Amino acid sequence: METKKIFLPEKEIPRQWYNIQADMPTPLQPPLNPATGKPVSPEDLLPIFPMNLIEQEMSTERWIDIPEEVLEKLITYRPTPLQRAYALERYLKTPAKIYYKNESVSPAGSHKPNTAIAQAYYNKVAGVKRLSTETGAGQWGCALSLACTLFGLECKVYMVKVSYEQKPYRQLMMKAWGAECVSSPSRDTNFGRKVLAEDPDCSGSLGIAISEAVEDAATSENTKYSLGSVLNHVMLHQTIIGLETQKQFEIVGDYPDVVIACVGGGSNFSGLSFPYIRDKIHGKDVQVIAVEPTACPTVTRGPFAYDYGDTAAKTPLLPMFTLGHNFLPKPIHAGGLRYHGMSPLVSRLILDNLVQPRAYNQLQTYKAGMIFAQTEGLICAPETNHAIAAAIDEAEKAREEGVAKTIVFCLSGHGLLDLAGYDAYLSGKLTDYSLPEEEMQKSLEAISSFPKPVV
Amino acid sequence: METKKIFLPEKEIPRQWYNIQADMPTPLQPPLNPATGKPVSPEDLLPIFPMNLIEQEMSTERWIDIPEEVLEKLITYRPTPLQRAYALERYLKTPAKIYYKNESVSPAGSHKPNTAIAQAYYNKVAGVKRLSTETGAGQWGCALSLACTLFGLECKVYMVKVSYEQKPYRQLMMKAWGAECVSSPSRDTNFGRKVLAEDPDCSGSLGIAISEAVEDAATSENTKYSLGSVLNHVMLHQTIIGLETQKQFEIVGDYPDVVIACVGGGSNFSGLSFPYIRDKIHGKDVQVIAVEPTACPTVTRGPFAYDYGDTAAKTPLLPMFTLGHNFLPKPIHAGGLRYHGMSPLVSRLILDNLVQPRAYNQLQTYKAGMIFAQTEGLICAPETNHAIAAAIDEAEKAREEGVAKTIVFCLSGHGLLDLAGYDAYLSGKLTDYSLPEEEMQKSLEAISSFPKPVV
Fold first, then answer.
1. DSSP 3-state assignment of A69?
2. What 3-state class would DSSP assign to B359?
3. Average pLDDT, chain A
């Protein structure tokens, strides 16, 4: 019997996160205060984040200890298995070995709790009693609700109205974990009430939900705001994915030639790849591929520029690949990849040629997801299907070249709560989208006057 | 850091199933042909089952080898973790140690694939190309669809119309795994067409769906029928749950005082408990509790009698606890526990005082499920919440008695696709049901003239 899952014993779980800022060839440029054009200071962020997380956000220490209390919660589902896709390999008739790091085994069904648990902990030790956040499709809201119940914090989630109504199961998950989940725009904030006064039928947007959550944090007692991607400390917390993967490959005496993950804000990608990019910086021959949708081609076609992290233009300006903060991508099913910007860390690594960006059309990703479901048995999230599509392409290339490569991708989440896309695919109604050039240029006009980062 | 999950390495996966028929103090009485009143012969079952599974159904061999090809598929998700519920223990302030065997990590989200994979394999080696089955809430249909895609078999699922329409995600899962899933009554069988001719708006029933699936198997080329519970070979395949659990307890040097699982048809209960009941038969002091809903109190209040396994009265007569095959339980959310009968094996073990039956009202099970979700972080299936309720009761009893017992229960499935019950609970709309005595007696009239088994 071939070994299918490489398990790391709990006692082997990594005890430190890896901070790639210690090794980057080009250091990050600072976020800017949009009003002054000056770098943001830690104090500027205090109304919405606790100081311990702000320090992590700005740290350049290579290794940061994972607190014991965080490890105790992470082992609810970690270490996650590294699985070998034998059936997929046989189906593809490839000499390549394909592995996937299975983050879908968390109680929330995705990698998101890795940072939610850490953030809940740091807020708790900073004396915070309550966290506010926004959620689009619901993955992040679920992860933070889970983390808050594990640490006994209150949690309020502003969920974009259209998702709140279309995805009742997601808000029920949050409520089962004791969180308060409201449809955004809500009557609970000044901003929400203002929006509703202007348009009582407003279906909401991520920008509106962020504004509500930030206002809540800034104006409520003992409350801070929490974000599930983009920021440096989020990427830091996710590196446990790749650090575990490295230990697991050591167990079987293998090392990947190709490392693949999908990118929206960058969190599951950073998690799997940063420890490998460290090796690459130090001379290791490893190819790292970031996969995004053609409908939202941030890193394959967008410019590297200073832009707001949110559509509401409330955050500092971040140096990153962007399609413009007003960009509204077509409603592809991979909701987690419909983000106009990209983690500044990931952006910098792409500029420095350490990461190879790639975009796929929607139909191809579902075709890949169906092959995976029918060979390996796992129905993946639409976001994950982007990584699978690239893994299949690389495995087919290996077959054509006759090379026995080792490929690993991040299975960032299962698709059991997002099956509408499979329905559309199976009934022949799924369509492809590629962003037209004119539309992108038009969206980018909004940031043409912003300060320019050094490329 | 305390060890939370006890992992069994893949190479330690049990290589044999345990057949409790070899050790039962009282042997099973045979199923009867309702027309003749005579015991059913293997040949009687051949139109719908392959001979290798019929042999397993009737075997009294203690250990039956698990084929290598079955193990290769099982390790997609097995061995499953045995997890310690530290947070729940602390919440309950109990000296008891509470463990749960987490079967929710399978790609279908429940323990059902354990037998689906075995059945698909045995059918495949018998030359069968296609399996038919019925499904109510959808768990079993999903598991068999998964198993069939892993072995390259065709699969047709007749899904009760009301569930087909209310649970679109379930049928989408089956379709993503390549199965054909139709709403029952369908136009694809004589029986379905007959039902629709009489009542075009018929919302379907499990009985109708079974009749359609059996007709399909009996009349289609290279097709057999597959069942997800009740039968002896199903219980056999599930014993891998308890055999793994025993090995995992050995790793930590512990042994349970109390073993708990919910019972509908008996499959997850048998899986966890049979290896422990073997120990009990051989003198070990272990308490085994089977938990059912008060709305469908088969083993706590029903008589032990010969009855049909299905509401359509198509199967042989089985010696079991039953509420009468026409019994229609109230629509509690634990769909998998709404079954009129009980596995003959489990029934016999209850009669012989090796298993202690217990019933809970719906509200109490959801209260328990909410406590579990907010302490351990896992949102469980409504069926599983019955086992959790009993585990909590036993842990509280241990606290009152000041005894440090070890409790283990089967976490048979997650609840991410069945959140409607949580919604009802959270909004105060969930109600309790207990079956009125008159209603039970009325339902039992239908079987009053059947042959009587020896008690």
1. helix
2. strand
3. 95
Residues in chain A within 8 Å Cβ distance of B150: 87, 377
Hey, is the C-beta of B90 within 8 angstroms of any chain A C-beta? no
CB contact under 8 A, A172 and B72: no
Greatest pairwise CA separation for chain A in angstroms = 65
Residue A218: per-residue pLDDT: 92
Helix, coil or strand: residue B198: helix
Q: What are phi and psi of B154, to 5 degrees?
A: -80, 155
B377/A150 Cβ within 8 A: yes
Question: In chain B, what is the greatest distance between 2 CA atoms, to the nearest angstrom?
Answer: 64
Q: What percent of chain A has pLDDT over 70?
A: 100
Q: How far apart are CA B47 and CA B213, in angstroms?
A: 12
* Residues of B in Cβ contact (< 8 Å) with A11: 1, 3
Q: Return residues 244-283 of B near A (CB < 8 Å).
A: none
Q: Which residues of B touch A178 (CB under 8 A)?
A: 374
Say how far apart CA B229 and CA B356 lie, in whole Å.
20
To the nearest whole Å, the CA of B289 is away from the closest chain A CA by 26
Predicted TM-score (pTM) above 0.80: yes
Label the pairing between strands B63-65 and B16-18. antiparallel
> Which pLDDT score is estimated for B333?
87
Q: What is the pLDDT of residue A363?
A: 97
Distance, CA of A364 to CA of A429 (rounded, Å): 14
Question: pLDDT tens, B286-298?
Answer: 999 999 999 999 9
Residue ranges of the domains in chain B? 5-10+67-109+233-447
- pLDDT for the residue numbered B58: 96
Contact A379 B173 (CB under 8 A): yes
Under the banding of pLDDT at 50, 70 and 90, the label for residue A333 is confident
Neighbour-count burial of A269, counting CB atoms closer than 10 A to its CB (0-12 exposed, 13-18 middle, 19+ buried): buried
| C-alpha dist (Å) from residue A439 to A302, A328, A341 | 12, 10, 16
Q: List % helix, strand, coil for chain B (3-state, nearest 5).
A: 45, 15, 40
Whether residue A423 lies within 8 A of chain B, CB to CB, comes out as yes
Looking at beta carbons, which residues of chain B come within 8 Å of A4?
A: 10, 72, 75-76
Gap between the Cα atoms of B366 and B368, Å rounded: 5
Q: Nearest Cα to B449, choosing from B307, B299, B297?
A: B307
The string of pLDDT tens digits covering residues B38-76 is: 999 999 999 999 999 999 999 999 999 999 999 999 999
The predicted pLDDT at position A167 comes to 83
Q: Can you give the C-alpha Rg of chain B in angstroms?
A: 21
For residue A84, the cross-strand partners are: A99
Shortest Cα distance from A79 to chain B (angstroms)?
A: 10
Res B312: pLDDT: 79
Q: Which amino acid does the sequence have at A230?
A: V
Q: Which residue of B has its CA nearest to A143?
A: B377
User: What pLDDT digit, counting tens, does each position of B305-345 carry?
Assistant: 999 988 778 889 999 999 999 898 888 888 889 899 999 99
What does the pLDDT read at residue A314?
81
Fold of A5-10+67-109+233-447: Rossmann fold (3.40.50)
Using CB atoms, pick whichever of A1, A169, A373 lies closest to residue B177.
Answer: A373
Predicted local confidence at residue A206, as pLDDT:
82
What does the buried/exposed string (b/e) look like for A412-449 if buried means 16 or more CB atoms within 10 Å of the residue's CB? Answer: bbbbbbbbbbbbbbbeeebeebebeeeebeebbeebee
pLDDT in tens, A78-114: 999 999 999 999 999 999 999 999 999 999 999 999 9
CB pairs under 8 A between A and B: 126
Chain A interface, mutation test: which of B5, B105, B429, most A Cβ atoms within 10 Å?
B5
Q: Does A434 score more than 80 pLDDT?
A: yes
